[in-house]
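Email to the structure team, subject: Metal-dependent HD superfamily phosphohydrolase model.

Hi all, the expression group asked for a predicted structure before they design truncation constructs. Nothing fancy, just the tokens so they can compare against earlier work. One-line instruction: predict Metal-dependent HD superfamily phosphohydrolase, return tokens.
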Amino acid sequence: MEVAKRWNLMFPEDGSNWWQQIRNHYQESGRYYHTLNHIDCMFKQMDKVVGKLQDTEAVSLAILFHDVIYDPTKSDNEQRSADLFRQFAVECLSDWQEERIQKVFDWILATQKHQASDEKCLDLMYFLDIDLQVLGWPVAQYDVYASQIRQEYSFVSEDIYRQKRPEVLKNFLKRLRLYQTDDFYEEFEIQARSNLQREISRLESG
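Reply from the structure team: attached below.
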């Protein structure tokens, strides 16, 4: 299901105002990976585990808003995305309890480190794993992702990118598990580690 259709099903009374804003952000120039296609892929993966989620609507909103603000030259994208979600919640989620709104807000912030602050919250763990699913894609698809990330950081020189990008990837490899749910761990962990190591080797080989 297309992202726009999902939005219309969730918020048929939106009048398209918020959807237009969200869509415009994801269609900004300079985005190659962090686009609506990324959001669509996340939703398709969510659909596969939806029966295991406790609050599907909350996970859906976390997916929609988590990359709505994306400027690779800035370090506060997650905070600004979460702030925009809260603004949306004030206007459109009057029937939600504050605790539920805060939950989604915190989940969006959690994408900064991609580690669950509450290991008992399966919804958060699935949300973070869904976002990192790309790391475990088949080689050809992962290479497209890696190329898209490089395009988003085109303002960084090749020498600096070859130095900094491996540092990010190595931090992932240091973790005992890249994926926090057993489902994702069993399906993607081995391929993800292989992909990360391969990209590191390629970048460091010059």
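The chain has a mean pLDDT of 95. The CA atoms of residues 174 and 193 lie 10 Å apart. Ping us if the truncation boundaries need rechecking.
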